[in-house]
Amino acid sequence: MLNRSFRPSQQEGCRPFPIASLEITLLDEAQQRAKEREKVLFARLCRIFDWKLTRQQRRYYAQSLQDGMTLVLTDLSKSILWTSHSFLTLTGYTMGEVLGRTPSLLQGKDTNMSLMRKVGDQLRHARPVNITTRNHRKNGESYLCRIMINPMRNTQGDLTHFLAVEYEVADA
């Protein structure tokens, strides 16, 4: 005999399809709005710091944000001034934990320190960097990532910042 008082929606963790679908749609829309806000913020940073960027470079950074890549802005002493939300998600840190610190907080026992010294040399000479390295999340878990760091110059040609674009890659 069937128990007609059984309602799946009352079971723990079970949501009727329309509600779950709506929640997913709302979450997706909220994420898209957050990405748009980050793109607007990045455009403001470009104006505030008077960076000399080509249209193609602006599109690249905006697309990187849209695609969920992490962006990290540092000053010349490599102190973090701003990160994209995806950086916080990838690493497990909060904005308060990373502001004012250097990206070396992501280094750990699996990080190739010889490569990091070469990166430092490149940045001291204001040269772009393009590497694959192993970084570490706040919880200590390591991950392989691709990092492109560009020196940022203002319209007068003065070096003002470094901007890194990073994304996780699959281990080989």
TrEMBL record:
Transmembrane regions listed in the UniProt entry: none
SUPFAM superfamilies, alphabetized: PYP-like sensor domain (PAS domain)
Keyword line: Chromophore, Flavoprotein, FMN
Keyword Metal-binding: no
Domain PAS: 71-102
Pfam assignment, any one: PAS_9
Entry keyword annotation includes Transport: no
Domain of life: Bacteria
Protein name per the record: PAS domain-containing protein
Source organism per UniProt: Rudanella paleaurantiibacter
